[in-house]
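User: Run a structure prediction on this.
Assistant: Running it now.
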Amino acid sequence: MYIRRSTRKYGNRTYTNHLLVESIQTPKGPRQKTICSLGDLSPRPAKDWLKLAHKIEGALVGQKGLIAEEDLETKRLIRKAKGGIKNRQPREMDDLIKIHIDKVETALHREAGPVHVGYQFWRRLGLDVILSKAGVNQRVQRLACAMTLNRLIFPLSEHAMPDWIRSTAIEDILGVDFKNLTEDALYRNLDKLYPRRAAIESALVERERNLFNLKPTIFFYDITSTYFEGEAKKNRKARRGYSRDKRPDCKQVLVGLAIGQEGFPLAHEVMEGNLQDRETLDGMLQLMNDRVGLSEGQTVVIDRGMAYDENIEQIRKRNLHYIVASRQSERNEWFSEFEELEGFEEIHRTPSPLNPFQKKSKVQIKKIEKGELIYVLCISSGRVEKDKAIRHKQEERFLLDVGKLRKRVEKGNLVEDKAVSEAIGRLKERYPRVARYYKLKCDTRRKTLTCKLDEDKMRKAEILDGAYLLKTDRSDLSADEIWRIYMTLTRAEAAFRAMKSPLSERPIFHQIERRVETHIFLCVLAYHLLVAIENTLLYRGIHTSWWTIRQTLRTYQVCTIILPADNGKILNIRKASKPEPEIIELYKLLNIPVEIMQPKKFWTS
């Protein structure tokens, strides 16, 4: 023990106090602990302070003989020091205590692994800074972070989200108390984010471009639909249209998404649910130009649903290049070239590392120049069986409906030529893939309906199974490069699958337009995190999916350890569990700290 001098100035006077302190060892190194205040010892010479400290220390450890020899002032200081020792409460820095081991418990277990990874990438992408610059206050930032992590880890409605937030370590990681959080606060948070979506998305794209050194030369655009539960009467964009979710009974909106070559989203837009794919391209190109900027020479990759002449002209007038999959009618014009196998070169497409059950497929390609355009004829062994299965399934349903129509004609339920023609027209519209191979003829007088297969057209269809045609205005690329760039379009399809399944974008229960669009925006933000996590591992040669990562991290938790001490007090330590070796290795690969939080200690009665 020793005595430390302490001074404090108040007004024009300086007050002196002397403290009896001891040095203790803690996990953070040596620390000074105050035993008691001895008052002002200035009347004593400074050289006597050390002697006094030794006398007090001896008295405290039971050397009674020393007390009788001292003056009254020294005895008073010793009694004061003893009182300080007696009344001193256990402190958090005390790392040696006696506990009742049979009463040790743990409580308040919270899942922390996936939340920790998601939050670390939220910080890495600089989303707090981006939101702040967009005019979002700290409270909205924290709620936006929690809501985005929910969509990334365990998507729920805003009604169920508060309970999920409280069941995880988000409170420990963010340092925010969500005990009184309600769904109304989350709805209000959606409203506050809504007008800032474009600014946030643009800033995030720029951040990712610099952080991951992304190439802006090629981007891919695709579209999907997502449906509503309910009438969505307050949403003018909610319409009935072609449903990719097989829910034509529900209203829907379309979501257009542009992504870069590495899979990071560039821009998204929510559109009316009854638009055709080709009607969305020009608006999306303008949106891309406004938010991230389009530069001359970039290449747009789109699927056959947007491969119409007017779409290609929309791309060309912006001085952009294009790679598209030609529509089926254009592909059929190249039948003789597909039939002649000479000139095709074979390439092998290895299965995706994220899908170990995918079979290896053989692809044959042939490049043909025609004027200023380059065509690449492709025949995929993997698509042959798929095309056959789709055609046979539609053919069965088509012939079944033709049989039903024939019975109606034979029974005399349809007697007018116009009504029969309309019924046949509806069949052709419902089964466009196979109706073209059959000739339907009806004689209402004789009450007969004949259905004859056009064998020549069917033979050509069978030859073209697995065949598709790519078209581009880029003459500097080889057939292999064109094909591989186009196949990267599957990243956009994977993005939609991720948003609809693991991120649970659908169905949408919101009825108000602004909340629907902010709900989708949060799904896009979560997808930014997902792509950043997967690509970080991919750059290190680790091919895995977020779903697998999430399952691995589930065992890492935060809990409170309850330690009853022998002094009647209870020491509570809030800290993370010891991570498994595979979790430590995963954190190392992701370059994030293993430590989730600093342990928190507090005493209770």
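DSSP finds 23 helices and 18 strands in the chain.
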